[in-house]
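Design job #97: recover the sequence.
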């Protein structure tokens, strides 16, 4: 199990934002406007929902105590959203079976990240499952709503994706997402003392 723990980093919210932006840039380079719109809106909404759930718990202690649920797992949501979409794009143009297998592999990877979070004690089962389901809804929803409109994903789009990934990753190094969620929770709730929560 310890050998699998590095896979937890695949769901890091900073990586999710950077890689999500890279995939968005690739779609724009391919002029896949509908798919880019679906992906941007659904991924942005999913990540915002994760952040909102953490802010609500930090500020007001929201959640479902009976299920040991404090907030959505950002790592599980990020992995569940990104990897099915990434594999689908990389296998675009191949046979339908290949694309379905890529999506299934991405979903399995997202579920594995969620299981590792529970095994490592970072999240409860409810938090990891909810995050994984949210991520899967983002990726599958994007593919369902916009996938048919994508005629081709030219290789030169990978260059734009790589440049965007490098730029976004550099920016996210100094983003301090947890700090800003704490600031938002204090501002919105008016409470100086916040409820304890692992905000990653």
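Job complete. Output follows.
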């Amino acid at each position: 199990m310890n050998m699998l723990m590095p896979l937890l980093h695949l769901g890091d919210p900073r990586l999710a934002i950077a890689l999500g932006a890279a995939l968005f840039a690739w779609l724009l380079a391919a002029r896949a406007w509908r798919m880019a719109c679906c992906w941007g809106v659904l991924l942005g909404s999913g990540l915002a929902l994760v952040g909102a759930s953490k802010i609500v718990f930090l500020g007001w202690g929201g959640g479902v105590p009976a299920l040991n649920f404090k907030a959505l797992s950002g790592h599980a949501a990020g992995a569940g959203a990104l990897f099915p979409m990434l594999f689908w794009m990389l296998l675009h143009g191949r046979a339908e079976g290949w694309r379905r297998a890529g999506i299934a592999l991405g979903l399995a990877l997202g579920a594995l990240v969620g299981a590792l979070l529970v095994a490592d004690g970072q999240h409860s089962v409810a938090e990891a499952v909810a995050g994984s389901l949210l991520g899967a809804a983002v990726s599958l929803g994007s593919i369902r709503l916009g996938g048919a409109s994508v005629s081709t994903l030219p290789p030169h789009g990978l260059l734009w994706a790589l440049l965007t990934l490098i730029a976004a990753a550099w920016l996210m190094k100094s983003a301090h997402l947890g700090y800003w969620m704490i600031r938002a929770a204090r501002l919105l709730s008016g409470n100086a003392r916040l409820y304890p929560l692992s905000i990653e």
